[in-house]
UniProtKB/TrEMBL annotation:
Homotrimer. It comes from Comamonas terrigena. This is Cobalamin adenosyltransferase. The keyword Glycosyltransferase does not apply. Keywords: ATP-binding, Cobalamin biosynthesis, Nucleotide-binding, Transferase. The keyword Cell membrane does not apply. Its EC number is 2.5.1.-. InterPro entries: CblAdoTrfase-like, CblAdoTrfase-like_sf, PduO-typ. Pfam families: Cob_adeno_trans. NCBIfam families: PduO_Nterm. Residues 1-10, 20-30 have a biased composition (Polar residues). Residues 1-31 are annotated as: Disordered.
Length: 189
């Protein structure tokens, strides 16, 4: 495993490169640092979501997710190393089943809106999708196990579901897209 930083301003990245956990250096604009950065950004957005009033079970779940994302970032920083655990994906699958069971079926697209917590969950969802795309791009040029991609895919689904749950926390609802086509169909046009 790579060395832990004992100082932050190392100046080693001034040339446009960054060090990976295996002590190799790559361009900051290469696929691996992009994927690492998006996972880090996602973790930061989840930290912001945790500043909102949340049900305790959601708070605990998101805390676990932050640890798994840190593991995922570590795995991305060390080619060939495995830190993301299989039980993390299982936890997401179980949470998806639990929270989906509480929600009514979607009848229309919803907007990323509602309460602050729900809106922030949607921001997290979109960053998770971007991180997933970066991991897919990386996996197209490097051999990697599927777990990082699967985790981010499942997490983005969970964040969508949690946004719906959070909008209902105090008796609210989803914010539905007002489709002109569907309105015309409903009016019999």
């Amino acid at each position: 495993m790579g060395n832990r930083l004992t100082q932050i301003a190392t100046r080693t990245g001034d040339d446009g490169s960054t060090g990976l956990g295996d002590n190799t250096r790559v361009s900051k604009n290469s696929l691996r640092p992009h994927a690492m950065g998006d996972v880090d950004e996602l973790n930061s957005h989840i930290g912001l979501l945790l500043c909102e009033p949340l049900p305790q079970d959601v708070r605990e779940l998101l805390g676990d997710v932050q640890h798994q994302l840190f593991n995922l970032g570590g795995e991305l920083s060390m080619p060939g190393y495995e830190l993301l655990k299989d039980d993390g994906l299982l936890q997401l699958d179980n949470a998806l089943a639990q929270y989906n069971a509480q929600l009514p079926r979607l009848v229309e697209f919803i907007l990323p809106a509602g309460t602050r917590a729900a809106a922030q969950a949607h921001v997290c969802r979109t960053v998770a999708r971007r991180a997933e795309r970066q991991v897919v791009a990386l996996q197209e040029v490097e051999t990697m196990r599927p777990a990082p991609r699967q985790y981010l895919n499942r997490l983005s689904d969970l964040l969508f579901v949690l946004a719906r749950v959070l909008n209902r926390m105090d008796g609210g609802d989803d914010v539905y897209w007002k489709s002109e086509r569907l309105a015309r169909l409903a009016a019999g046009e």
